[in-house]
Every structure is written in C-alpha cells, then in structure tokens.
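Q: My labmate handed me this sequence with no annotations at all. I'd like to see what the chain might look like in three dimensions before we decide whether it's worth expressing. Could you predict it?
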Amino acid sequence: MGKTAKLNGARVAKYKRNLAKWSLNLTPAEVERAAQWYPETLALCHDIAKVGGYTIEQAASIFSAYSPRVAYKRNITLAYRHARGEQIDGLTNSRKVALQAEKVGLKALNGPKTQAFARNILGDSYAVTVDVWHCKAAGLMADGPTIVQYREISRATQLLAMDLGIEPSTLQALIWVRIRGKAD
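A: Here is what I predict for the chain of 184 residues:
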C-alpha cells in the first residue's frame, strides 16, 4: 500500500471558509430538498437496476460512470440507455467503465469523484462527491483537483457539515444546487 499524502490544515480551513459562503442563510426547505437528492437518485437507480437486470450497486456504479462532465438529466438518460442495451456514441471511457461496473460494481470506478458519487447514491452520507462545481465553491479554480486537493475539500466539507449539523452528502448536494442555480 502506498504512502498517503498528509492534508494541509491551512488549505482545509480555507476550503471550509469558501464552502461556508455557499451555506449562509440556509432554509429548512433547502436542507430538506438537498437531503432528498441522493435518496431520489437511489430510487432512479433501483429502476435502472430493474431495467438492466443489475444489482443496486451495479446500477449506481453505472449511473456514476456516466456522470463526469455530464448534466444530471443527461446522466439519467445515458444510464437508462445503457440499461436497455442501446448504443451510446462518444463517452468511450464512461462506457468502458459502465460495462465493467456491470461485472464488478463499485470496483470499476477508479476516480475518487465517481467512487464517492456511487457511494453517496447507495446511502454513504459521509463520502463527499467533489466535482467541478464543488471545487469552484471551495475556491479551487483548477480544471480538476489533485488527489490531495480532493481529500482536503472532502475533509473541509465534512467539518463544515458537522458544524451545521447536517450530513456531508447533504451539504455537498445543497452547495451543488446553489452554485448551479438548479437541482437538475
């Protein structure tokens, strides 16, 4: 097993401050809506599992495999098309990972974002999906985080969620909706 890089406490604190700006003046309705986002996606994955004859882990992994740089509504369409065995043009790597997910579920997901996204869908509320939108909210303007930056932003989200008394996955969903300006 490789050596794990140590998190930089100052960067974690900076990311937490930046994320906190996106959680100001939360309403109970916003928190409730964000708390339902992953369970609603899980319900979609249950249907995708029925359509494709998959386990729920396989369906959530397939859904996650199609998620990088794809709008949520398109992600749903792609996962259903995959489950029905329809041709999907482009997205070569996503298709390859989704096909592997049919066999090995979560083990097919190589990146921390897709791994965390599938785990969130499956009910792991402590995992944090750090996508491009969450990076922007944390103040990271790079195209994508390094593995250390990913872990630091994830930790900052977990700490802020603890301060707010909500689950990290709920906070991530809330910030995602707020920064994008919509839930889908």
